[in-house]
Amino acid sequence: MQIRTSTAEDWPGIFGFYQKIMDEGQTYAFPKGQSLEEARPWWMEPPPGQTVVAVDNGRIIGSAKMGPNKPGAGSHIATASFLLDREARSRGVGRSLGRYVIEWARQENYHGIQFNAVVETNEAAVHLWQSLGFAILDTVPGAFRHPTKGLVGLHFMFLPLESATSPEH
Amino acid sequence: MQIRTSTAEDWPGIFGFYQKIMDEGQTYAFPKGQSLEEARPWWMEPPPGQTVVAVDNGRIIGSAKMGPNKPGAGSHIATASFLLDREARSRGVGRSLGRYVIEWARQENYHGIQFNAVVETNEAAVHLWQSLGFAILDTVPGAFRHPTKGLVGLHFMFLPLESATSPEH
């Protein structure tokens, strides 16, 4: 399994599981029913961010997007999002993508990584991020309409990074 | 002083203080140096949200934008942002705009209002939102580069609203 920066040609391969995950509606507050072209800017991140793909035997089985959480005066904090094809779960692909993002954010001199909306019932994700050092900052109660569990909370999670080499980033 | 829904023609009047506030860089993690047209989609909110203006003697002295904080499964929580022309400050215009947004969110059956990035040194704003019932959920340390105070925190603030009339909003 290899993680590499995506190209525009990778998008249809990512979209296969993007579409399934958004239609299931258990983990992302994203629009449903998007076409291939409507969804593209929601996942394919422009510079200074990037989107990467996890490739196994030539097939895209996961993806992460990463970049500044905010523009301007908030651009030294990164954020990221993750998607895994169903058969890639429980195989360490999420962990590898998480580690990749942390290393990328360090190299780009971000001061920390913030997740803005981790669905509290997505325990696999919450535990994975905690095991990589993220803490739950707080939870907005009932902020997510889960298709089977009703209104559940959204966690903010945060990982501070070691002091950057460039204070002016 | 009157608060009303904005029209496209109001944007140049809002942009006058939008530009000053973003250039000062003390309260918003927005891009700097935007042109009138670049900045327009950053402030003029499409439906189901809206942008309103506070008008005094025919002059726009403040503005607020409001809408769903997230699409899809998170669209029942609102968010909002506020701008005041310098001479409108300490005159209750911010409080009137805040009350307007809360009333709008109630009528639209939102379950709560979330502010994602209140600069902790912007004490007038923090105190105003607290006086209107918002609580600081948590603070991301050092997430905002203040032009004179260095790295300061960003508060998440939240106001739960009474149970909505429509549970399916």
Automatic annotation (TrEMBL), chains A, B:
Pfam families: Acetyltransf_1. Gene3D superfamilies: 3.40.630.30. Coiled coil: none annotated. Residues 1-162 form the N-acetyltransferase domain. This is L-amino acid N-acyltransferase YncA.
